[in-house]
Amino acid sequence: CGLVYLNPRPTFQSMADYYPPEYYDITMPNRISPSPDGFRNLVTNLLVMAGNRGRIKSVEKNHILDRQTKLLDLGCGNGNFLYALKKQKGCEVAGVEFCAEMAKYCSSQLGLDVREGVLLENRFADGCFDVVTMWHYFEHEFNPLGVLWEVRRILKDDGLVVMEIPTIDCWPAKLFKSKWFPLEVPRHVVHYSPKTIERILNKAGFKLIDIEYPSTPGYTSVALFYALGLSARNFYKGSKPNKVKRFIYKLILLLLFFLTLPLEILFLTLKQGDIIKVFASPVQK
After folding, report:
1. Per DSSP, what are the bridge partners of residue 93?
2. Rounded-to-10 torsion of CA 189, 105, 32, 97
């Protein structure tokens, strides 16, 4: 059918070993501070809020976002999107997060309704959400069809599903092959194309509304970084960052970023970027 998946893969029980604290420090370095106590925290808050406006606007193009909207974010990480959405649109928000530390942070520090674990462990009521979002979550999911069936159950008939995922059918994936940045073995267990994501959505009772191709600045530079035999793992000795190596590698990444920027613009223009944003709605019963 064209679906690409990791085989063999770790057991679900062992996957926590592949999400150590430094994984979140690298992938989600900027956390919202509900009560910023310094200039740095204030600037971070402004940047995080601004950075989520694009996601909020893309959802809003396909569904109303206001105080009556109930939205669930799967794999909500540090809660930045939910916090920004609540502040900017007043929506009633909830989240599910696999990492216990992140779930606790969202609940205790940001005051968000975030539940630890995965969706199938948390039983929400039938038809209780207007929107369900998955920002770089679905490629991590061991049971994608089961999750979509559950999303269909908890979503209203006029609801919306939004997911942002890597697409294996892009030029960078074909160019870099095993060094393609979004492969992220073994955390990404399933890789979709526009064709296969539409097929699985249809099978779960959804119809595809639209596919967008958002910009992904830096993805090509990181793939080239890996192709040169370098790795972010070299930042660390055990769990502690090696500051000298980290500084040198950041300089290399910065140089590669500017060198590959014209290529990334070309990919985006031709709708061949690494990432797609998918919008779907339930098929009426």
Report:
1. 71
2. 20
